[in-house]
Amino acid sequence: MSERPTKAILRVLNGEPVWPLPIWIMRQAGRYLPEYRETRKQAGSFLDLCYNPKLAEEVTLQPIRRFGFDASILFSDILVIPHALGQDVRFVENEGPKLDPVTSQADLARLTDELPLERLEPVFETLDRLSRSLPKETTLLGFCGAPWTVASYMIAGKGTPDQAPARLTAYRDPVFMDALIDRLVRASAAYLIRQIDAGAEAVQIFESFGSALPPALFDRLSLNPIRRMVEGLKSARPQAKVIVFVRGGGAHLHRFAAAGIGDGLALDWTLDPVNVLPGLPAHVATQGNLDPLALIAGGEALTRGTDHILKAVRGRPHIFNLGHGILPETPVEHVEQLIAHVRGA
Ligand SMILES: Cc1c2[nH]c(c1CCC(=O)O)Cc1[nH]c(c(CCC(=O)O)c1C)Cc1[nH]c(c(CCC(=O)O)c1C)Cc1[nH]c(c(C)c1CCC(=O)O)C2
């Protein structure tokens, strides 16, 4: 007999409405927290921090200690996958990630075909530590990037407006593009399976650049690769819960739901849940979707934005979150106010 989950986030991901809504925040460990900035100084480079299980555990726990979120997301980055596959990845202060671009089959042939899981051992050790140090009511989330989002960094070697280099590659060299996506689907599924084995109870897949894809490329580069990843994970670890976040994917959400891709679908801040939720099956959990700038602004913008979501999702399985990651400028007091408001509703 399978046990009924008791953690609020897992109950919601099982399709059960829970009130007050459970809450966590994308990028909840990070520079808006003074204690993160302090630990970051001790770590050396950003990747050194990701691969230091003790310090990565510490920064993962910081927002849990301070706010008591219902979920704790592993501290790592989506770019550890290209790094483990053999691509050079650096994080340049105030500039973001820089990679040696992979733009051809020859470049791809220099990376490993299968993900060398042993290179990611520190990440799994962080999860193992967290599964023992977190409060018992807190759900431990793993994550990875969706293949298109990760591929767009691998091809351009950095963040680019509208992911133009990767999009152009998809048109000009479909054979290479499909091979790269396939490599990432297999690597990411293997990575997520190992995260579950190390203690993650659910995982979130970040398709941060879904907005860049025209309809002709969306299924090929986003929906189908994510479907294959989720199928790979679920066939190996049926108990694993999956949240899919496709930023800019609002027009496709109902198709993710109809195809059964993900136990939860995260809404970005451009979507109005009042319009979106009626198009989704009642058992599919949703997550989101306050504008991160409303959290920076605070006051009326924060209260009104939060109340709009609370009212729209009442009676449905929903996890409160932002519609994208929290920004470094966010006042900590506004996060406290948000949590008090959601929990007092
Ligand atoms: C696109 C993307 C990346 N990384 C990630 C995404 C998808 C989510 C999204 O769309 O926001 C995901 C990510 N990155 C990080 C986490 C950790 C866990 C958490 O959410 O608390 C997660 C889930 C830590 C991080 N990843 C990064 C930081 C900041 C670096 C630092 O502390 O010096 C953190 C806390 C660096 C990073 N990593 C990435 C970029 C573009 C940057 C630089 C931008 C910036 O500086 O804010 C790639």
From TrEMBL:
Signal peptide: none annotated. Residues 22-31, 141-157 form the Uroporphyrinogen decarboxylase (URO-D) domain. The keyword tRNA processing does not apply. Substrate binds at R27, Q28, A29, G30, R31, D77, Y153, S208, H324. The keyword Transmembrane helix does not apply. The record marks D77 as: Transition state stabilizer. Its EC number is 4.1.1.37. CDD domains: URO-D (cd00717). Keywords: Cytoplasm, Decarboxylase, Lyase, Porphyrin biosynthesis. It comes from the Bacteria. GO terms for biological process: protoporphyrinogen IX biosynthetic process from glutamate. It catalyses: uroporphyrinogen III + 4 H(+) = coproporphyrinogen III + 4 CO2. It holds the Pfam family URO-D. Pathway: Porphyrin-containing compound metabolism; protoporphyrin-IX biosynthesis; coproporphyrinogen-III from 5-aminolevulinate: step 4/4. It is found in: Cytoplasm. One of its GO terms (cellular component) is cytosol. One of its GO terms (molecular function) is uroporphyrinogen decarboxylase activity. Homodimer. Belongs to the uroporphyrinogen decarboxylase family. Catalyzes the decarboxylation of four acetate groups of uroporphyrinogen-III to yield coproporphyrinogen-III. This is Uroporphyrinogen decarboxylase. It comes from Microvirga tunisiensis. The lineage of its organism: Bacteria, Pseudomonadati, Pseudomonadota, Alphaproteobacteria, Hyphomicrobiales. The gene is hemE.
